[in-house]
Amino acid sequence: MISDTGTGIFAHTAQRLASFGFSSLRIDFRGVGESGGRFQDTTYNRQIEDCIAAMDFVSDLPSGRPSAIFLLGWSQGGLVAAVAAGRTNRPAAVALWAPVGEPKVSFPAFIGRDVYERALRSGAPTEFQMPWGASLTLGPAFFADVENLDPLDEIAPYQGPVFIAEGSLDVAIPVGTASKFAKAHNGANQIWVAPMDHIFNTSKNVETLEKLITATAMFFSGRPNCGGSG
Fold first, then answer.
1. Residues spanned by CATH 3.40.50.1820 within the chain?
2. What is the C-alpha separation between 25 and 47, in angstroms, rounded?
3. What local confidence, expressed as pLDDT, does residue 38 receive?
4. Is the pLDDT score of 41 beyond 70?
5. What is the DSSP letter of 67?
6. Nearest CA-CA partner of 221 in 131, 93, 53, 63
7. Using an 8 Å Cβ cutoff, are 136 and 128 in contact?
């Protein structure tokens, strides 16, 4: 929740994007939130499939414009958006907010190398604790995706423009990930860097998030270079 508003980051972002003229669809991946299935069965590839299915859904709406679909992904959702874009080359543009670029580096750092390696060897679901105290259980297929999926390689075929936001205070994503995505992507891109943590300083206020949303909307509108740096 955002301290100033009591709303979630995605709900707030959707409201602000609407003010710029962008309708939005927010989805729960299978096994998450109100979607059916078990969370322990989730994998990166299943989430990517869900993202592509969401693009299909929007394209089929009476008001849908297949040529004007934009993807926005935050953190692990950035990984999903990057790979979905690379596998389909469909989005008009993509925004990656603090994206996971090297999952087999960042995820073991979250849960501990010993836990990660044990999960890779195990044929059964593994329970572990995240740094903020949440206890999760994920199956072996998830850890196989963490080990084998390379979003930096996957985004290369995408020909549209990519906006990549990175926080200099973010301890969840290694510094330089934005540059790696920009180098891996063969199309136009913009790197936006700000002194923000992984949740865009929203535990204090929405100032940084507002700047990020505005910069993203301007990029989607074809008017980059708004706020931040890069």
1. 9-102+150-220
2. 15
3. 92
4. yes
5. G
6. 93
7. yes
Quickly count helices (H) and strands (E) in the chain.
9, 6
Beta bridge partner(s), residue 128: 136
* Nearest one of 116, 111, 31, 42 to 79, comparing CA atoms: 42
Task: Choose between 2 and 177: higher pLDDT.
Answer: 177
Distance CA 103, CA 79 (A): 9
| Angle, helices 76-88/44-60, rounded to nearest 10 degrees | 60
DSSP state of 84: H
Name the amino acid, one letter, at 15: Q
List all residues 6 or more positions away from 6 whose beta carbon is below 8 Å from its beta carbon.
none
- Give dist(CA 179, CA 200) in Å, integer: 19
Tokens matching residue 153: 């390689």
Structure tokens given for 143: 């850890």
Q: What is the pLDDT of residue 229?
A: 53
Are the beta carbons of 178 and 191 closer than 8 angstroms?
A: yes
Looking at the chain, the whole-number percentage of residues with pLDDT higher than 70 is 96
The CATH number, out of the four listed (3.40.50.280, 3.90.1010.10, 3.30.830.10, 3.40.50.1820), of the domain defined by the range 9-102+150-220: 3.40.50.1820
Q: What is the pLDDT of residue 132?
A: 80
8 Å CB contact between 98 and 216: no
Which range has the worst mean pLDDT, 20-24, 31-35, 143-147, 197-201? Answer: 31-35
Q: Give the Cα separation of 58 and 25 in Å (integer).
A: 8
Q: Residues 70, 102: contact at Cβ < 8 Å?
A: no
The pair of structure tokens assigned to 4 is 């100033």
